[in-house]
């Protein structure tokens, strides 16, 4: 496997960063998870725009243009012979001294990994997924804005551990006010009385690329939507429920906290969204060729 490290492709065994890199020492960096479908890097421009916004928010100067980053992503996919896969684009603050000061961090590190991925078996898209709510709360947006896709994912990891210890693949995280924020790696959508509802960034939700795509699809197929503060009760009594994310795509949820969602099977509207999404992914992005 070839890894893109700064300005060149190297073998996986040679892809190394300093132990003094602030991305390793303090989680000081940003990333994007991107999908490749049939030679199309889905929503690459949108991902790179979000990367730039995240960098600006944490005062990290990117020494690469968007065009250079785009070509580096495509080059990595081509070097690994991929037509379908998952791309992890990482920018760390770079090597510095021990301590929180970034004054000595002068060279951000660019890492691009492109490989195959299957987050959930196909049967979950056909039969639905069962999830729970976990005790770990989402970080307050006033402390760390969820719009910044940073390398510090310990909050989400703790929630994922809690879910997995109880035999579940995914879990809902509440914010400090008790409202639904998001899942450990996915956005949450509730369908109730024909209206699609989803938490806002102010509630702790990441402004996901797949989330935005779902909202665009909702406009196209005539499903009204709005951002809303959702309680666990709103989730329990939902007619339909699904999660969205780059790796997960759109996955239906059929049970939350032992409560059956709708009929206990993936809903008709959820299936419409998934079908529309899968039609988009091979054309809405940047071609490798």
Structural features, described:
It is a single chain. The chain has 289 residues and is of the alpha+beta class. The chain folds into 2 domains: 114 residues, D-amino Acid Aminotransferase, Chain A, domain 1 (2-Layer Sandwich), CATH 3.30.470.10; 159 residues, D-amino Acid Aminotransferase, subunit A, domain 2 (D-amino Acid Aminotransferase, Chain A, domain 2), CATH 3.20.10.10. Helix content is 28%, strand content 28%. The chain is built from 8 helices and 16 strands. The strands form 2 sheets. Strands 7, 8, 9, 10, 11, 12, 13, 14 and 15 form a 9-stranded mixed sheet that branches. It has a 7-stranded antiparallel sheet with strand order 2-1-6-5-3-4-16. The radius of gyration is 19 Å and the shape is globular. The two termini are 20 Å apart.
Radius of gyration: 19 Å
N-end to C-end Cα span:
20 Å
Number of domains: 2
Helix content: 25-40%
The level 1 CATH classification of the largest domain is Alpha Beta
Number of strands: 16
Task: Give the biggest beta sheet.
Answer: 9 strands, mixed
Fourth-tier CATH superfamily name of the largest domain: D-amino Acid Aminotransferase, subunit A, domain 2
Short synopsis of the structure:
By secondary structure, the protein is an alpha+beta fold. It is built from eight helices and 16 strands.
């Amino acid at each position: 496997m070839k890894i893109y490290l700064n300005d060149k492709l190297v073998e996986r065994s040679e892809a190394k960063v300093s132990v003094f890199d602030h991305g390793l020492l303090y989680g000081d960096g940003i990333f994007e998870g991107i999908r490749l479908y049939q030679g199309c890097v889905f929503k690459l421009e949108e991902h790179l725009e979000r990367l730039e916004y995240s960098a600006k928010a944490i005062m990290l100067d990117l020494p690469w243009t968007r065009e250079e980053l785009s070509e580096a992503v495509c080059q990595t996919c081509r070097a690994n012979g991929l037509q379908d896969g998952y791309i992890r684009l990482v920018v760390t603050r770079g090597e510095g001294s021990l301590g929180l000061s970034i004054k000595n961090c002068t060279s951000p590190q660019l890492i691009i990994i492109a490989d195959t991925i299957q987050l959930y078996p196909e049967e979950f898209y056909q039969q639905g997924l069962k999830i729970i709510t976990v005790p770990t709360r989402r970080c307050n947006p006033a402390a760390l804005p969820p719009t910044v896709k940073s390398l510090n994912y310990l909050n989400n990891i703790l929630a994922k551990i809690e879910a997995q210890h109880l035999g579940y693949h995914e879990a809902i995280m509440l914010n400090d006010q008790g409202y639904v924020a998001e899942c450990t790696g996915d956005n949450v959508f509730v369908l109730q009385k024909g209206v699609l509802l989803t938490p806002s960034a102010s509630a702790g939700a990441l402004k996901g690329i797949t989330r935005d795509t779902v909202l665009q699809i909702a406009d196209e197929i005539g499903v009204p939507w709005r951002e809303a503060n959702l309680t666990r009760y709103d989730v329990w009594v939902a007619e339909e429920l699904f999660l969205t994310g780059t790796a997960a795509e759109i996955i239906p949820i059929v049970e939350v906290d032992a409560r059956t969602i709708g009929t206990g099977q993936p809903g008709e509207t959820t299936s419409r969204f998934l079908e529309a999404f899968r039609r988009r992914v091979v054309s809405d992005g940047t071609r490798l060729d």
